[in-house]
Amino acid sequence: MKAAEVVMGTGARAAALAVKSARVDVVPGYPITPQTSIIEAVAAMVENGELHARFIPVEGEHSAMAAAVAASAAGARVFTATSANGLLYMHEVLHMASGGRLPVVMCNVNRGIFAPWTLWADHQDSMAQRDTGWIQYHCSSNQEVFNTILQAFRVAEQINIPVMVNFDGFAISHCLMPLTLPPQEDIDRFLPPHEPEWRLDPAHPSSFSNVTNAEEYAPFRQMLSDDIMAAIPLVKQAAQEYKDITGMWDGDTIDTYRLEDAEVVAFAVNSMAAELKLSIDILRQQGIKAGLLRPRLYLPFPAEDIINALPQNAQVMVLDRNYNFGHPGGILASELKSALFGRRNDITVKNRVMGIGGIDLPRRFMADEIRAMMDE
Amino acid sequence: MKTVAARPESLTGAQYHYCPGCTHGIIHRLVAEVIDELGIREKTIGICPVGCAVLAYDYFNCDMLEAAHGRAPAIATGIKRMLPENVVFTYQGDGDLASIGMAEILHASARGEKITVIFVNNAVYGMTGGQMAPTTLLGQVTTTSPYGRKAEVEGYPVRMAEILAENEGSAYIARTTVNKPANVRRTKKAIKKAFEIQQKGLGFTMVEILSACPTNWGLSPVQALEWIDENMIPYYPLGEFKNKEA
């Protein structure tokens, strides 16, 4: 058996290497900071023959997603990547991907949105796409980016729903970490070639995304709503089988740290959740029974897994890197409260918004914030 | 003592962030000199692009509004229709205007919006670090065409001045460059003409300016100026493509 290879790579490099390992067929791309290094790396792999794919340098993100949707309808395994306003510009076509049941996988490298401009990370961009019918992962390390893209293709193609793989700009996309690359034959075993049941094929004519009347439209929407919930067991299965084959584990729908006996639980996604593990250690040293619950899957929201994982009478400190405009606080807090309502009345939920527009979130700062929240 | 050269009032004096050898600085100064000479600083409103000139609002000493990527001509339209007595200009690069903003520029021109567009064409996405733009020349190496642009894969470079000159709504369209003193003077004349025609209300005006990007072309500043002569001008000929006044 061939051994895994370990290389140094940024999060963007990890994404590009996953695209190569997934044997993607088509990559439409358009530059936007901080995502650009992904499509640059993919373009180079295509040009030097490492990846047998077609790279399409389109004129904007709206066209990038349109080309992705179309190539997917033609039966291809499709990847693209974007950030911030690029993702917002795609918004209309995101619905076409999910409504058309086309399993595109996209990286969104999280960045705060315009106006005013910022180049730095927060989660407003992807969380603003909450209702587009996409599955959304949030990754907390470079390795998890690599692993998750492969799992994302598998889930997407099993259920015909597109998947967005999110990770923070710069903190993950541009920082070097060691990356373990499993042998290609292991990845091929985990992710078999894409064999869509429906595709544009003149030998077997079919059409996608037609005009419908209400009697047809409503069942389509209901089907999408039902099927996206049905992704949860597939996400778990993909994580487990990926672990069985590669030995690597980032959690399935959720990832936890020192949670079992925790009285105070930090609840956050993406790179800040990795740093929070260190904040938890600081709090434990201070005699506070702290733990972490990180939703790795943001959508579908893994409510059952969260309900089952939270210790009795825990105080949950939701640290949101986004705003839920029109409501106090952030989006994750609202999602969590809605999941817990009537199910876990023993749980107290508190919320802080932090790290907006890339404000740094060091371990001590977050530990101090959590301690302050305990007194509120 | 007599002052023979001074910073135009229409520049704030803030230090440019542009790379050594970049010609944005010259073009900023020319626009500012024209605004001074026409005495329109107090009624001029500029629109910044997304791209290297995103911080132009720090440099131009007039009202400035920042646009989303490619949207500057539509933003300018909204301002000019609301404030027709004001002078409105956009300052855009090729990654902004000829790519994601193609719809906006074509329709602003087709509608004959009485605005002036300063279009800085350096054949590459500068700020994101040198990716292929619609204006990238065939064979030109960029980070997304690392073996050179190929027509069969990436298509052909877009000639914006010629395309927009076809629109009935366009009143003045010219292409210039700033790689030599004589060309700098010609560029200033073209910019002035564009602002004057806007003020006369004759229609849409644009000056496309071939500009150097030594950083992303991988050339020294002097080589980059020569590269404009050797590679860009043969494909992007200089001249006036439309002048409704003439």
Brief descriptors of the model:
heterodimer, A: 376 residues, Rossmann fold, 2 domains, five-stranded mixed sheet, 13 helices, B: 246 residues, seven-stranded mixed sheet, 9 helices, 7 strands, globular
How would you describe what is shown here?
The complex is a heterodimer of chains A (376) and B (246). Chain A has 376 residues and is α/β, with parallel strands linked by helices. Chain A is 42% helix and 18% strand. In chain A, the strands form 4 sheets. In chain A, strands 4-5-7-6-12 form a 5-stranded mixed β-sheet, sandwiched between helices. In chain A, helix 12 links the parallel strand 13 (315-320) and strand 14. The model of chain A has no long low-confidence stretch (mean pLDDT 97). Chain B is α/β, with parallel strands linked by helices. Chain B has a single domain (24-243), classed as Rossmann fold. In chain B, 37% of the residues lie in helices and 17% in strands. Chain B contains 9 helices and 7 strands; from the N terminus they run H-E-E-H-E-H-H-E-H-H-E-H-E-H-H-E. Chain B has a 7-stranded mixed β-sheet with strand order 2-1-3-4-6-5-7, with helices on both faces. The longest helix of chain B is centred in the last third of the chain and has 20 residues, at 181-200. Chain B is globular. The N and C termini of chain B lie far apart (41 Å). The mean pLDDT of chain B is 97. The chains are: A alpha/beta (376), B alpha/beta (246). Chain A binds chain B through residues 29-33, 36, 39-40, 43-44, 47-48, 55, 57, 59-61, 85, 89, 114-117, and chain B through 50, 54, 66, 68-70, 95, 99-100, 102, 125, 127-129, 131-132, 134, 143-147, 154.
Layout of secondary structure:
The complex is a heterodimer of chains A (376) and B (246).
Chain A: E1 5-9, H1 11-21, E2 26-29, H2 36-47, E3 54-57, H3 61-73, E4 79-82, H4 84-99, E5 105-110, H5 124-127, E6 135-138, H6 142-159, E7 163-168, E8 177-181, H7 184-190, H8 214-229, H9 231-246, E9 254-257, E10 264-267, H10 271-285, E11 290-295, E12 297-299, H11 303-309, E13 315-320, H12 331-340, E14 348-353, H13 363-374
Parallel strand pairs in A: 2-3, 4-5, 5-7, 6-7, 10-11, 10-13, 13-14
Antiparallel strand pairs in A: 1-8, 6-12, 9-11
Helix pairs in contact in A: 1-2, 1-6, 3-4, 6-9, 7-9, 10-13
Chain B: H1 24-38, E1 44-48, E2 63-66, H2 72-82, E3 87-93, H3 94-100, H4 102-110, E4 116-121, H5 151-154, H6 160-165, E5 170-177, H7 181-200, E6 204-210, H8 214-217, H9 221-235, E7 239-243
Parallel strand pairs in B: 1-2, 1-3, 3-4, 4-6, 5-6
Antiparallel strand pairs in B: 5-7
Helix pairs in contact in B: 1-7, 3-4
